[in-house]
Design goal:
five-stranded antiparallel beta sheet, disordered N terminus
């Protein structure tokens, strides 16, 4: 693929090619044509001549024995006098134009895109070339003209495109840099400003790694080298320090390009100093919050243990007093026991929550009789239900127990929280616990005829410390952790919990535990 010539070699205002650009253009692009002329004509040397801006430019050249060609001005003058006609080169070159092994030849001059060009074929004498070879030289000169017209048209289009590109880049509000082998070869004004320079001219040629702060200059160098080799890398963040001593955090997006015929890296910088500081503050705030959460968890666990120990003694003594007393003293002892049990329930809930949030709770699944666990929970709440005039029911698959691979404590805590919640919010009627097996999946339903839940509060009911009745005048006691713990225990066991409720008509909580039922086709390890 043909590489564009450096834009500095083209005069955009006049639309004319400079001599140095022409020399490079013709040497690189027309060399094949000159070599073909040399081969077809059998000449000792073939030289292309061009006249531009008062200068005679030589090249390309094909053939052997040419020591140095400086101008060949004598022959070139004759060719221009006979523009478009093949002319015999009879004059011997002057000492200034001398080149070994050349006595004479033929040549032709032509017009090409606003300037004159020519082809010269050398032999021992002009008579070395017959009429057919002269016609061939004339034909090759026409080919040369077509090539030059095409090259100049393409070149002008490239320069116009690069001019638009430069205008956009130079006016871009973000820094844009081009580096070759780690050094800056182009930078726009925004980039110069970021690096504390008055203009790009103060930065071109300097190694980019010299502006990288901290211990990452080598990383920047490796980043540029990898992209220059054609790799596509994600954006990188670096700390840079400009000539003004000001440090900034930049995010660089880089891509491989070709610049002035050489592999290079084009980078767009974005100043993320403020964003980086904000992100750092967010991280620190998150770490502080996590630390506070750890402290809270530790506090809850410690205080729970500290209160539970004396509370156990209080409950034990209150039960002894109740058994050995009568009348008002016995009633007071029962009040102490009920209040103590309520406090113990709250402490257990807080301890469970602390263990879960501290990620210190680990389940130990084992073969568990689900029906036995359900009977235990119903027996636990039997007296409380009777005191409220409620009926407790258990519905199980007919004729056999249900065994599942579960953590017994977790299953028990789920059933306790759901049944306790149903009793709390049911004033009359029935609470029914149903165990259902579908293939290897276990379903546990807890139905009540209680007050129900407002549809807008259903999802909130599973959040910690949430009750639909709030404030010091709330209608129902409790910490608001029962459903929260039930859901978390179920999720720890790999299941889900769902609720369907209608205000004033009751609720149904359904626990779904997939693939846990133990039967002949299931093996647990």
């Amino acid at each position: 693929m043909r590489e564009p010539l450096p834009p500095r070699r083209f005069k955009e205002a006049s639309g004319e090619l400079q001599a140095d650009a022409l020399e490079l253009l013709l040497t690189q692009r027309l060399d094949t044509v000159v070599k073909l002329v040399h081969q077809v004509l059998g000449a000792s040397q073939v030289v292309a001549l061009w006249q531009l801006a008062g200068q005679t430019v030589i090249g390309p050249v094909a053939g052997n024995g040419m020591k140095e060609v400086g101008g060949l001005t004598a022959w070139w003058h004759d060719l221009q006098q006979e523009m478009g006609t093949v002319v015999a080169l009879k004059k011997k070159p002057t000492a200034k134009d001398e080149h070994a092994g050349t006595e004479g030849g033929i040549g032709i001059a032509f017009k090409a895109t606003g300037f004159a060009g020519g082809l010269l074929a050398f032999g021992s004498s002009p008579q070395d070339f017959d009429s057919e070879q002269k016609q061939q030289l004339a034909a090759f000169s026409e080919v040369m003209q077509d090539h030059v017209k095409l090259l100049v048209a393409q070149y002008k289009a490239e320069v116009a495109g690069e001019s638009r590109w430069r205008h956009l880049v130079e006016q871009h509000p973000e820094p844009i840099l081009i580096c070759h082998q780690g050094s800056i070869v182009y930078i726009n004004q925004a980039g110069a400003h970021m690096l504390g320079a008055e203009g790009p001219q103060h930065l071109v040629g300097q190694p980019l790694s010299g502006f990288v702060a901290g211990d990452t200059p080598l990383l920047m160098q490796q980043h540029l080298e990898a992209i220059e080799q054609g790799k596509r890398l994600a954006a990188q963040d670096f700390d840079v320090c400009g000539l003004d001593g000001k440090k900034r955090r930049i995010r660089t997006h880089s891509a491989p390009i070709t610049f002035q015929g050489k592999p290079a890296t084009q980078s767009v910088w974005r100043d993320v100093t403020t964003q980086h500081a904000y992100e750092r503050e967010l991280i620190e705030a998150k770490e502080r919050a996590e630390e506070m959460d750890r402290l809270k968890t530790t506090f809850l666990m410690n205080i729970s243990h500290e209160i539970r120990t004396p509370l156990t003694s209080i409950l034990g003594f209150s039960e002894i007093i109740a058994d050995e007393s009568e009348g008002e003293l016995r009633m007071q002892a029962h009040l102490i026991t009920d209040s103590g049990n309520r406090l113990m329930t709250t402490l257990n809930a807080l301890l469970d929550l602390a263990e879960m949030e501290g990620k210190m709770m680990h389940l130990s699944p084992q073969r568990t009789d689900v029906v036995e666990q359900a009977l235990r929970v119903l027996y636990l709440f039997k007296r409380k239900a009777q005191d409220r005039g409620l009926v407790l029911r258990l519905s199980v698959p007919r004729g056999h127990s249900v065994y599942a691979y579960l953590d017994q404590r977790a299953l028990g805590r789920v059933l306790e929280n759901l049944v306790s919640n149903a009793i709390k919010f049911t004033h009359q009627g029935t609470i029914e616990l149903t165990i259902e097996v579908v293939s290897d999946d276990l379903f546990i339903h807890v139905d009540d005829t209680g007050i129900g839940i407002t549809p807008t509060f259903v999802e909130q009911s599973f959040e910690a410390f949430q009750q639909e009745s709030q404030g010091i005048q709330r209608m129902y006691e409790g910490s608001g952790l029962g459903l929260t713990l039930a859901r978390r225990f179920v999720e720890l066991m790999g299941g889900t919990i769902d609720v369907k409720s209608e205000k004033g008509k009751g609720s149904r909580f359904t626990v779904y535990l997939p693939g846990v039922v133990f039967n002949s086709s299931t093996a647990f390890f």
